[in-house]
Specification:
22 helices
C-alpha cells in the first residue's frame, strides 16, 4: 500500500468508532486506519504499523496521550500528532507545542474541525516526505528544499516569488528562530508588501552572518525564518527592534514576536508555534512592542468571575446614572489590567455582556426600546468587539458604546418627542453632507427658527454643534481601523474635506485624528 496510515488512540470505543466510520479517509489517500484503547497498546503497535498520523486522546488510563506522543516523536520523528481532549488542558497545550503537535481538537468533536486537522496533518506528512527526499539530493536544489520546508511548516506563501533568496547554508545552520511581524487588520496585501520591503532593509542592518528567509503568510502577518551560527542573535534582534520603536525609525503600527531557539531545520514548526504563543501578547501590549518567547508563556490564565462582575454592574446601572456606570467601567478595566493575564476572548465576551446588560437594564427600568437591528444589538456588538486587536482598543470601543447608549437613554427621558426625532435622525444620518437645521426642520414640519429655539432650550446646544459632535464621536470609532485613510474617515462621517475634519477634531479633543489614533493603538 502506498497510501498514508492513521492510528486512533482513545479509551472510549464510541470516539474510536465515530472517527473511523464517519471520516472519509479515502479523500486523503489514507488507506489504513487502525485503533488502540490506550497509549501502551498504541506504542506496541507502532513498531509494525508505523503510522504517518496519530490521533490520540490526552487523558487515558495506563499511558496518557502526552507520554505516548513523546515516545512516538522520539522513535518516529516524522509522525504527525493530533491531540483530542474534553478539557481545557493548558498544561498539556504547552507540552503539545514542544512536541510539535499538529492540532488540538476539543471534545465533543466537531467533524469539520477534525477534518481540517487531518488535512493539515496530511499536508505536513507529505511535505516531510518530500523534504527528506530533497535533503538527500541537496546539491543545487536548495531553493526547492526551502519551498518544501515552508510547506512542511504551514508557511507556504501564495506566490513563491515572495520568498526572499537565502544564502547557501540555510539548511545546515546551528540555530533557527522565527519572527512574526503583525500589522493591523484591514490594510490589505499592498500594505503587507510595503511592510515586507521595510523589513528587508531592517534585517539587512540588524542581522549579519545569518541566513534569513522572509515569507508573507497573509495580509496581517509576515513570517521571518532566520538561520544563524552564532549565539546571542535572538536577544540582540529584540533589542534592535525595540530601539527602532523608541527612536521612531519604525512606525508603531507593527508588533513583533520572536520564537524560542531551535537547533535543527526540522524543528522550525516548533519555533513557529512558540512565536504564535508570544504573539498573543499583542492584546495586552498593543502595537509598537516586541514579545520574546520565554518558555513560560503558556501559563494558566486568570478566570473572570462573570456572574459577580455582571451582578456588580447591574447595581451600578441602578438609576442609569452616566457617572456611576462609566466609573464602574473604568475600575473594571483597570482591575483586568492589574490582575491578568486573561484570555482575550474572555475579556471580549464579558465586554459584550456588559453592553447588553446596560441595554437590558434600560429596558427594565424605563421601558427603553430595543429596536430590531439597532447598532447596539448582540450580533453587531460582537462583530465590532471581536475585531478589536488590543486591550486599550477594546476598552475605548466599549466606553464609547456605553456613552452612546447612556446618551440615548438620557434623551429618551429628557426630551420632547420632536427633539428625540431630531436626535435620532442625526444619529442615523450623520454621514450625509446635506444634513442641516433646514432639512431637519422640514422633517418635523416646523420653521427653522422655532426648531432651533426648541432644540437649544432642551439640549443646551445648537443643532449644528450637535451634528458636528455626533460626526466627531462616530469618527473616533472609524479611527480604530488602521486601514482607513483620514480622507476616508472624514467622508464617512459627512465631511467633504479632510482638512476641515482635522481642524474640527483638534478643536473638540485637543489632538489631531492621527494623534488620537496613535493614542488608542
Amino acid at each position: 500500500m502506498n497510501g498514508l496510515k492513521v492510528m486512533i488512540v482513545d479509551d472510549e470505543r464510541a470516539t474510536r468508532n465515530g472517527l473511523k466510520n464517519n471520516v472519509d479517509w479515502s479523500r486523503w489517500t489514507i488507506d489504513d486506519v487502525t485503533e488502540a484503547c490506550d497509549g501502551e497498546e498504541a506504542l506496541g503497535l507502532c513498531n509494525d504499523f508505523k503510522p504517518d498520523i496519530v490521533i490520540t486522546d490526552i487523558r487515558m488510563p495506563i499511558m496518557d496521550g502526552v507520554t505516548l506522543a513523546t515516545s512516538i516523536v522520539n522513535q518516529y520523528p516524522d509522525t504527525k500528532i493530533i491531540f483530542l481532549s474534553g478539557y481545557s488542558d493548558k498544561d498539556y497545550l504547552k507540552a503539545a507545542i514542544h512536541l510539535g503537535v499538529v492540532n488540538y481538537v476539543e471534545k465533543p468533536i466537531d467533524l469539520e474541525e477534525m477534518e481540517a486537522a487531518i488535512q493539515k496533518a496530511v499536508d505536513l506528512r507529505l511535505a516531510t516526505k518530500q523534504m527528506s527526499q530533497m535533503k538527500r539530493q541537496m546539491g543545487d536544489a536548495q531553493k526547492l528544499a526551502v519551498e518544501a520546508l515552508l510547506r512542511q511548516n504551514g508557511l507556504t506563501p501564495e506566490d513563491s516569488a515572495l520568498i526572499e533568496q537565502t544564502e547557501p547554508g540555510f539548511l545546515s545552520c546551528r540555530y533557527y528562530m522565527v519572527m512574526i511581524t503583525k500589522i493591523p487588520s484591514g490594510n490589505g496585501r499592498e500594505e503587507a508588501d510595503k511592510t515586507l520591503s521595510i523589513l528587508k532593509g531592517l534585517w539587512s542592518e540588524a542581522l549579519t552572518k545569518v541566513h534569513r528567509l522572509l515569507v508573507v503568510k497573509d495580509d496581517q502577518h509576515i513570517v521571518t525564518v532566520i538561520g544563524y551560527d552564532q549565539q546571542g542573535k535572538r536577544k540582540a534582534l529584540a533589542d534592535f527592534v525595540e530601539d527602532k520603536f523608541r527612536n521612531r525609525t519604525l512606525e508603531k503600527a507593527m508588533y513583533f514576536s520572536i520564537s524560542e531557539t531551535v537547533h535543527d531545520i526540522d524543528q522550525i514548526y516548533q519555533a513557529y508555534q512558540s512565536s504564535v504563543i508570544a504573539l498573543q501578547g499583542l492584546f495586552a501590549d498593543g502595537y509598537g512592542k516586541v514579545s520574546l518567547y520565554d518558555g513560560n508563556m503558556v501559563t494558566p490564565y486568570e478566570v473572570i468571575d462573570t456572574e459577580a462582575v455582571l451582578h456588580q454592574f447591574k447595581l451600578a446601572c441602578n438609576g442609569l446614572e452616566r457617572k456611576k456606570v462609566l466609573e464602574y467601567l473604568r475600575l473594571f478595566y483597570n482591575s483586568l489590567r492589574m490582575n491578568g493575564p486573561y484570555m482575550s476572548n474572555d475579556v471580549k465576551n464579558i465586554s459584550l455582556s456588559l453592553c447588553l446588560t446596560l441595554l437590558d437594564e434600560a429596558q427594565r427600568q424605563i421601558s427603553f426600546k430595543k429596536e430590531e437591528g439597532r447598532r447596539e444589538d448582540g450580533s453587531f456588538l460582537w462583530e465590532k468587539i471581536f475585531r478589536t486587536e488590543t486591550f486599550e482598543n477594546l476598552r475605548a470601543y466599549v466606553n464609547d458604546t456605553m456613552t452612546g447608549i447612556l446618551s440615548e437613554i438620557e434623551h429618551c427621558n429628557r426630551y420632547s418627542k420632536t427633539v428625540r426625532t431630531i436626535i435620532d435622525t442625526i444619529q442615523n444620518e450623520y454621514m450625509s453632507e446635506d444634513l442641516s437645521t433646514k432639512t431637519l426642520a422640514k422633517k418635523v414640519y416646523l420653521t427653522t427658527a422655532y426648531l432651533s429655539t426648541l432644540f437649544k432650550k432642551e439640549t443646551g446646544t445648537t443643532i449644528s454643534k450637535y451634528i458636528q459632535q455626533t460626526r466627531l464621536e462616530k469618527s473616533k470609532e472609524l479611527l480604530m481601523d488602521q486601514g482607513k485613510q483620514l480622507a476616508d474617515v472624514a467622508e464617512s462621517v459627512g465631511y467633504a474635506a479632510a482638512n476641515y475634519y482635522t481642524k474640527a477634531f483638534k478643536k473638540q479633543y485637543g489632538m489631531t485624528p492621527s494623534e488620537y489614533r496613535e493614542k488608542v493603538w
